[in-house]
Specification:
The protein is built from 4 helices and 7 strands. The protein is an alpha+beta fold. It has a domain at 8-87: RNA-binding S4 domain (Structural Genomics Hypothetical 15.5 Kd Protein In mrcA-pckA Intergenic Region, Chain A, Roll), CATH 3.10.290.10. A 5-stranded antiparallel sheet has the order 3-2-5-6-7. Strand 2 (36-38) and strand 3 (41-42) form a beta hairpin.
Length: 125
């Protein structure tokens, strides 16, 4: 008996199956809130996805950009889930390094006027 893979499936089901959300209800809620886009368009939970479609999922302030590599409808293990998508998420920008302030001994009191000017000069004011 051969099991044929479907040509398309609902976006909320696919996002849940490949472990981009914890539950299918959260995937559907993300669709209704506009946090999931398929090929650049806002997706409703029943929007069909096919192999080659670009899916953007925004959660917790981070946007994941993935391409559908295989259609699945049931939740699978993490190893199998990575085979069903191609992660095209750009790397995060490098952290901005902020110069440290003046180091004072603990309990040394308030900075003097001269020290305050030096602190402001270090901060670029």
């Amino acid at each position: 008996m051969t099991t044929e893979l479907p040509a398309s499936t609902r976006v909320d089901r696919w996002v849940w199956a490949v472990r981009l959300t914890r539950t299918r209800a959260l995937a559907a809620a993300a669709c209704r809130a506009g946090h999931i886009r398929v090929n650049g368009d806002r997706a409703k939970p029943a929007t069909p996805v096919r192999v080659g479609d670009e899916v953007r999922v925004r959660s917790e302030g981070v946007e994941r950009v993935v391409e559908v590599a295989r259609i699945i409808e049931k939740r699978v293990g993490a190893g199998v889930a990575t085979e069903c998508l191609v992660d095209r998420t750009p790397p995060p920008p490098p952290p901005v390094e902020v110069p440290g302030g003046a180091v004072r001994d603990r309990g040394a009191g308030r900075p003097t006027k001269r020290e305050r000017r030096q602190i402001q000069q270090l901060r670029g004011h």
